[in-house]
Amino acid sequence: MAVKESERKYKPYKRLTQEQIELIYKLSEEKMEQRKIARALGVHLRTVQYHLKKPTIS
Q1: Which stretches in the chain have pLDDT values below 70?
Q2: Residue 24 near residue 41, CB atoms below 8 Å
Q3: Which among 12, 40, 49, 56 would be 20 to 30 A from 22, CA to CA?
């Protein structure tokens, strides 16, 4: 039984752009709460947490 697109609970997964990922780091450094970052970008809180936990290549 297929679920209609209008009945789906979540939007289909879409990768963040490099600009969005950089914005997560920037806003986090400015002491913005992770929940507010997620709301501003329209992504799930866990997505923000995932990117902040990832090791960065410097």
Answers
A1: 1-12, 56-58
A2: yes
A3: 12
